[in-house]
Every structure is written in C-alpha cells, then in structure tokens.
Amino acid sequence: MYAPERQQEILRLAQESGRVDVLSLAEEFQVTAETVRRDLKALDRAGLLRRVHGGAIPVGRLDFEPDLAERDAVAADEKDRIAQAALAELPSDGNVIIDAGTTTARLAAAVPVDATLTVVTHALPVAARLADHPGIALHLVGGRVRHRTRAAVDAWALGSYGEISADIVFLATNGFAADSGLTTPDLAEAAVKRAVIKAARRVVLLADSGKFGQRHFARFGDLTDVDLLITDTGLSPDDARSIESRGTEVVRA
C-alpha cells in the first residue's frame, strides 16, 4: 500500500471512530510506528486530522463523543491497571464519589464485595456494579440521564452534590492537558464534574495516557485541581514530571 492510500484509509478510520492511535494503526497496516507518525503529520499539515498524544482526531470533531461501549473498548488493559491501582486509594469506612466514566466503572467493578464504604454516584454503570455489595451504602444521584454516558446531569444532580462533603472523588475525563486542563464534550457533563470536584476533599483522576493532550469543548477544571493522577505507562516520564511540577502526584500503573 502506497503512503497516499494508507493516509486515505487512516482518515476514514478516524472519521468513523473519532480517534486513531499510532500503535493500532501500525499493527493494522503492518508498518512501523514512525511511519504512522509521518502519515499523521502529513494529514495534520493538510488540515485533515489534528494530532494528539498517541494518535490523532478529525478536524472539527473536538466535541466528538463515542458511545459508552466504544469508549470502554479503548485502552481496556490500561484502564484495568489504573482501576487496580486506584483500589489503594479507597478509604477504610469512608465516603467516596465515583464519577461517570469507563475507567471509574472498572474501579467500581474491582471494589471487593466485602468493602465497607459509602459511595455516591450519578453513573448508572457504577451503581449497577456496586448494588450487590452488602457493606456499601450506595447513594444514586438523580437527574436527566444522558444516553451516551448513562450519567445523570442537570439541576437535580448539581443540587445533590452541593449537599455532599466526601473524603475523595474518583474523577474521569475525556481529555487532560497542562494548558487546556480537564475537558469533556458536553457542557452538562462538565457542570456535574465541576460539582463533584468541589464536593470532595481529595481528587483522584483516573485517565489513560491516550487522553493526554486531548482537548474537548467543555472545560471543567485544571490539573491543579487534581491531587493524584493515576494513568498508565504510556504517559512518558517527562510528561509525568511536568504534571508533578504543577503540584499533582502522578502514578503510572
């Protein structure tokens, strides 16, 4: 396959899925990662794709939001490692907020069945994973449920979180970067995420490295709002040190 043909196929894949990553493309086309990076650079220069950390997204699709199943399938192994590392942050007999997200849902699935916690969440997938834990006092925050994320938003959710003071929140995001902060495609989701940050004394962000450098429409916080970032080893040591220099501890699982 010639480079122009490969680049046309990369563009098609990006438009279909909303994002492409270097390693998957290298495997798909049986070329080196460096060859893929050159293809992405050429497409970026042509104004057809926008390069982000680890891959690229279509131009004009900064607010693109894949559905839950699509997002859950991306970086699955990394998300499992992040969830396992996050278990160490669970307080003993404390109270926590678990935000809506695919990685936070994996954390909920990994919580031991004999755990004793108070958990507050506005995410239906999180609640479903914890509903059969006898030692967990589960509080489900209500509101309008977004079909794409299965998360409650708007006034009811915001009002509920305004009455809560939790030990810790396990936060999710669609993108994080030093300059643009924490971002997500939807304004209503962003408002709830902003509320859960305010509702907790400690903020732990669970985000795979593929989200580093991604920017979306709605900004809900800054990396300085985060006490601890748990990510994977795809985030380079240099990037980790840069984040830590701003006051956020980083764990690469």
Fold blueprint:
Layout: H1 3-17, E1 20-21, H2 22-29, H3 33-45, E2 49-52, E3 55-58, H4 68-73, H5 76-86, E4 95-98, H6 102-110, E5 117-121, H7 124-130, E6 136-140, E7 144-146, E8 151-153, H8 155-161, E9 168-171, E10 175-177, E11 181-184, H9 187-198, E12 203-206, E13 218-221, E14 228-231, H10 237-244, E15 249-252
Parallel strand pairs: 4-5, 4-9, 5-6, 9-12, 12-14, 14-15
Antiparallel strand pairs: 1-3, 2-3, 7-8, 10-11, 11-13
**Which band does the percent of strand residues land in?**
15-25%
Number of helices: 10
Q: Percent of residues in helical segments?
A: 25-40%
Q: What is the number of E strands?
A: 15
Provide the spatial order of strands within the biggest beta sheet: 6-5-4-9-12-14-15
Low-confidence stretches: none
Which whole number gives the mean pLDDT?
90
- Structural class by SSE content: alpha/beta
Main beta-sheet annotation: 7 strands, parallel
Q: What order do the helices and strands follow?
A: HEHHEEHHEHEHEEEHEEEHEEEHE
Radius of gyration: 19 Å
> Distance between the terminal alpha carbons, to the nearest Å?
37 Å
Key traits:
253 residues, alpha/beta, seven-stranded parallel β-sheet, elongated
